[in-house]
Amino acid sequence: MAKDSEAERRWLLLIYRVPSQSSKARVAVWRDLKRLGALYLQQAVCVLPDREELRAALDRVRERIAELEGSSHFFVLDDVDEREQRQITDGFRANSAKEYDEIVEECETKFFKEIEFERYRENYTFEEAEEIRQDLEKLRRWLRKVEARDWMGAPGREHAHDRVAECERLLEEFEITVAERVGEAG
């Protein structure tokens, strides 16, 4: 029976320990690993797909752990049971899907409401439009980061793109109104 591409996937496994007296250090390491897209199998044990850029990033995380007087062990897993492969893959998909959902929520509960609120206040200024544009750029950067670590093709990507596109549309309409209002006043 031929193996599928998921079953042939290689994984990078990191097991680490950071001194318990420094919660700040533990959180810093955790944050670095989450930023990379690491999937935690249990506390201080995480896995990532085997990619050159992730190997280099893990080397930097391991250096940080050592600087914090911690320890780490690094393994490349290339013979992983099919059931475990599915669990790891499903875990990565779930993480990315959750992040896409958070982007959608940010659009719907904050960005859309901000435009609505500024229209209600009739706060049609270039400064306000620029501030909202900066929020849109943050959403775009966040979406790019999530996509970059969505190695398993999680659901929700298209919906997140649609919501960010809706943010762009709403902002463009707001900017047109700002230009018209400022032009009328000038």
UniProtKB/TrEMBL annotation:
Organism superkingdom: Bacteria
InterPro entries: ChrB_N (IPR046858)
Domain ChrB N-terminal: 26-179
Full protein name: ChrB N-terminal domain-containing protein
Source organism of the structure: Acrocarpospora corrugata
Organism taxonomic ancestry: Bacteria, Bacillati, Actinomycetota, Actinomycetes, Streptosporangiales
